[in-house]
């Protein structure tokens, strides 16, 4: 499982993602023996930094965010040797030529066979020019492979995404591109496939005959924090919907792949996206999608400011910080079954959960039950709690005929000794090994955009569709009505 010897280039090395996720992930891989000594990391950013200062940044980041921080001191001197910094103006080709020399000397020092992984933790507007300058500066002429790893947002709509893709494609082939959706790196998202396809309990029932609806909730307690500038332009639909929410939906809805190969799996996922029923009109969007923005509120005795008062947010902003939608996957497996998805900032709980609600049993055939039976539920807890929870009906002990719902709860994150890898560890490791499974392919990205664009267009035309909800609440009431129309309700998250 070792990664082949390679140089990791982290563009945006002084930024937040590098500090919180990437450096700690690299150390975890090293600590677990998934990186041997034949690797190097070159941090690239504009600001000047000495090698020692940069190594100090890396050290601090692992101390703060690393899973194995307590082991760091022992190995630090050896580990730190693998890290170098390059201050670079990304518009200056000469800088790339210097980077090439630096790279070659590191490759010689650590016996690395010319494999290069370029991780762009940068604004997407820069992806095209950085790719181009990598080529012009001779950075792609090494003896090994070249791979490009890019972060979201991948475009703003289908058109801009296609343009961005075209620019990157002038330098990198699709199979060299790794588009990150970090939700696909989460342990429990990956587990969805295993739970479905490895259990006789679930797969035979996984269709419109037995399932009544599926609910995906991705709640966050944070507001926009210091990202107002980006977020006010994007909004929840683009920030979470186009990517994480739809990707989780594909994992729930996809057909079993014929082989466990990246392309076979991604083929099945894109089929789900293509089967999403597009909203036919603005009225259709208004009826099926709810959009909200938080006003001031409170949580845990703390006052929370309104979205419009957040830093770098326009005081009359109509950007949504919440959305919920009712979707249909129009294929043989799912026809007629609603999928409800919702996500928002400043909700009461930080959680990602998938609830699969099964159809109700036909009435009180057996026991003289006064109330209708509760449906069976399968709850997949993705984040931050990880686990699985099944709600079944059982006889109430001591009673004649009363039935009550009981839970079978598997809490993965409660098990001693389980310290789930961070999404970025898994994804970096996969990219370095050349495994595309948990990265989004261009046709997936494009299909997701074309679905989302219809919603965005309708919102643009009807700004009045924005609902408000107090910070710290579960979002607009209209989101409850989405389900009530179908005779369902959101299951409370745990
Ligand atoms: C990011 C979004 O992709 O995901 C953020 O841009 C969001 O707005 C984050 O906060 C949530 O990720 P996680 O892993 O903390 O649930």
Description:
This protein has 494 residues and is an alpha/beta fold. The protein is built from 13 helices and 17 strands. The protein has helices spanning 16-31, 51-65, 72-80, 93-110, 127-136, 158-169, 187-197, 228-253, 262-275, 282-288, 423-433, 442-461, 478-484; strands at 6-11, 39-45, 83-87, 115-120, 146-150, 177-179, 211-219, 289-295, 297-299, 302-304, 322-328, 338-344, 351-358, 377-383, 387-395, 403-411, 466-470. The chain has a nine-stranded mixed beta sheet, sandwiched between helices. Helix 1 (16-31) links the parallel strand 1 (6-11) and strand 2 (39-45). Helix 1 crosses helix 11, helix 6 (158-169) runs antiparallel to helix 12 (442-461) and helix 9 runs parallel beside helix 12 (442-461). 40% of the residues are buried. The model has no long low-confidence stretch (mean pLDDT 94). Bound molecules: 6-O-phosphono-beta-D-glucopyranose. 6-O-phosphono-beta-D-glucopyranose (BG6) binds at residues 220, 239, 383. Keywords: Carbohydrate metabolism, Glucose metabolism, NADP, Oxidoreductase. This is Glucose-6-phosphate 1-dehydrogenase. The active site is at residue 244.
Number of helices: 13
What class do helices, strands and sheet pairing give?
alpha/beta
**Low-confidence stretches at least 5 residues in length (pLDDT < 50)?**
none
Largest β-sheet summary: 9 strands, mixed
Order of helices and strands: EHEHHEHEHEHEHEHHHEEEEEEEEEHHEH
What does the average pLDDT come to? 94
Q: How many β strands by DSSP? A: 17
Note the quaternary state here. Answer: single chain
How helix-rich are the residues, as a percent range? 25-40%
Ions, cofactors and other ligands present here are: 6-O-phosphono-beta-D-glucopyranose
Globally, the shape reads globular
Name the strands of the widest sheet in spatial order.
16-15-14-13-7-12-11-8-17
Query: How much strand content do the residues show?
Result: 15-25%
Question: What is the C-alpha radius of gyration, as a whole number of Å?
Answer: 24 Å
Distance between the termini: 36 Å
């Amino acid at each position: 499982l070792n990664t082949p010897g390679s140089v990791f280039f982290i563009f945006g090395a002084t930024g937040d993602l590098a500090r919180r996720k990437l450096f700690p992930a690299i150390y975890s891989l090293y600590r677990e023996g998934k990186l041997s000594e034949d690797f190097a990391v070159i941090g690239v950013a504009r600001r000047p930094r000495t090698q020692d200062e940069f190594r100090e940044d890396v050290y601090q980041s692992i101390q703060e965010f690393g899973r194995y921080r307590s082991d760091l001191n022992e190995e630090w001197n050896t580990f730190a040797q693998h890290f170098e910094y390059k201050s670079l103006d990304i518009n200056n080709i000469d800088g790339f030529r210097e980077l090439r020399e630096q790279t070659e000397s590191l490759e010689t020092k650590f016996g690395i066979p010319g494999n290069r992984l370029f991780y762009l933790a940068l604004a997407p507007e820069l992806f095209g020019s950085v790719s181009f300058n990598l080529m012009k500066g001779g950075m792609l002429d090494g003896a090994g492979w070249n791979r490009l790893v890019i972060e979201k947002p991948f475009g703003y709509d289908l058109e801009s995404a296609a343009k961005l893709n075209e620019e990157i494609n002038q330098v990198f082939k699709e199979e060299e591109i790794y588009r990150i959706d970090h939700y696909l790196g989460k342990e429990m998202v990956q587990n969805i496939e295993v739970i479905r396809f490895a259990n006789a309990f679930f797969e035979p029932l996984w269709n419109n005959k037995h399932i009544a609806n599926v609910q995906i909730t991705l709640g966050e307690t944070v507001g926009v924090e210091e990202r107002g500038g980006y977020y006010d332009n994007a909004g929840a639909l683009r920030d979470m919907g186009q990517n994480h929410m739809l990707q989780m939906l594909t994992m729930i809805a996809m057909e079993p792949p014929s082989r466990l190969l990246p392309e076979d799996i991604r083929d099945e996922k894109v089929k789900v996206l293509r089967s999403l029923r597009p909203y036919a009109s603005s009225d259709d969007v208004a009826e099926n999608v709810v959009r909200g923005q938080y006003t001031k509120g409170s949580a845990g005795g703390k006052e929370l400011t309104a979205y419009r008062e957040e830093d770098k947010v326009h005081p009359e902003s109509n950007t949504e910080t919440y959305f919920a939608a009712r979707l249909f996957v129009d294929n043989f497996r799912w026809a007629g079954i609603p999928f409800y998805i919702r996500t928002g900032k400043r909700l009461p709980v930080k959680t990602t959960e998938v609830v699969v609600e099964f159809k109700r049993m036909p009435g009180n055939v057996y026991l003289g039950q006064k109330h209708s039976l509760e449906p069976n539920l399968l709850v997949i807890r993705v984040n931050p709690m990880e686990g699985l929870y099944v709600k079944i009906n059982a006889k109430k002990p001591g009673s004649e005929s009363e039935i009550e719902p009981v839970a079978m709860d598997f809490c993965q994150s409660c098990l001693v000794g389980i310290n789930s890898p961070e999404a970025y560890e898994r994804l970096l490791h996969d990219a370095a090994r050349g495994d595309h499974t948990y990265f989004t392919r261009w046709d997936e990205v494009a299909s997701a955009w074309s679905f989302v664009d219809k919603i965005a267009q309708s919102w643009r035309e009807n700004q009045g569709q924005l609902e408000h909800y107090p910070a710290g609440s579960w979002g607009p009431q209209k989101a409850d009505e989405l389900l009530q129309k179908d005779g369902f309700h959101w299951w409370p998250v745990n």
